[in-house]
Amino acid sequence: MIRLIKGNKQGRDDYLKLLNSRRTEVNSDVVKSVTKILNEIERRGDSALIEYTNKFDSKELNSQNILVTEDEIKDAYNKVDKKFIDSIKQAKKNIEKFHDKQKHNSFVLADEPGKIMGQRYIPLKRVGVYVPGGTAAYPSSVLMNITPAKIAGVDEIIMVTPVRENLDINPSVLVAADIAGADKIYKIGGAQAVAALAYGTETIPKVDKIVGPGNIYVATSKKLVYGEVDIDMIAGPSEILVIADETANPKFVAADLMSQAEHDKLASSALITTSFDIAEKVNKQIEIQIKDLDRKEIIEESLKNNGIIILVDNIKEAFEIGNEIAPEHLELCIKDPFSYLPCVRNAGSVFLGSYSPEPLGDYFAGPNHVLPTSGTARFYSPLSVDDFVKKSSYIYYSKEELQKVADNIMTIAEDEGLTAHRNSIYVRKN
User: Fold this and answer.
1) 78 and 213 belong to one structural domain
2) Which end of the chain is more exposed for a tag (fewer CB within 10 A), N or C?
3) So where's the catalytic machinery, residue-wise (predicted)?
4) Active-site choice (40, 99, 262, 329)
5) In a domain, 372, yes or no
């Protein structure tokens, strides 16, 4: 089911090339289409927003029904199972508990008379959360995007999500948004929703940052409005890498590789192992388990095109390759995984041991599942409370303290050729 290669330099280079091939350039027609939508929303506001929404999604949207009402949220609760509601509430508690530890304290440095310096952490005023509709409507992502923003202290969280023909929104998404604490939910999606959040319209308030996944049009629009507002990241196809030794359970490993492959035909599932026996058994387990899975065709194509098993001589080599791949999700199905945690330099989230599968992180454990993809775990981090605050520093010097350092400052300013900077200090000397 998945091709097997040796972990030599050529083998790893071939796989890295395969991963890079998924990072295709955005089609120029997509950029052109998105740019037109962004410009129209910025220029015409609600009029263009409703026009594009009725063109691509519903035919019935207007300025009176664009905002989700309390009655619609109550109706959503009636459409979902109570066990789902209880599970979402428990997941939210776990996510809150983890992200609460990420909060920073402002500090003041005043250990010398006449000098005070410090740094303040300030929550963003307003954040937009994009939630996909249709088959990619994931209530778990609603929790993961809204909860850290609430903990950070964001004043207002605006959620947008596309509707179906009859103005319906996935009820599970509405329930999750209500439990997570979205302040307002608007029935808009696509590039037009991103534009509305970035520029503001008569109905939609302008936000400071836009987070959340979406299709190629949403991703392109987020990229194009960056600078007007901040964004979280440009997400690529899902990824999982499992590092396994001879103690791994091939049934578990096979299940976990397929759990990522079912996302998308471009998703990548990789196994690096020191055991040829494990490699063979994993492939056999995939053949057995895939028969009963709903998204069998997607999984098969994903594994065929982007799946790989890399056989290495030792665990050290496995981690060397793993750090080059810098996967979104990394599972360590090895003996004593905690002892190898320091070997992990590049990974979005790490899952330790055979009973910590990737879906545990997707839905319930607490750490965020919005993770860097396409090798960007080399320099990006998971979504966190940090993404919803900004920092400001401040400085106070008394007259006497400024006099002590005035010559140093003027010397540096002169060296840089900035005489107005020098003068700003000089006029305060004595």
Assistant:
1) yes
2) C
3) 328-329
4) 329
5) no
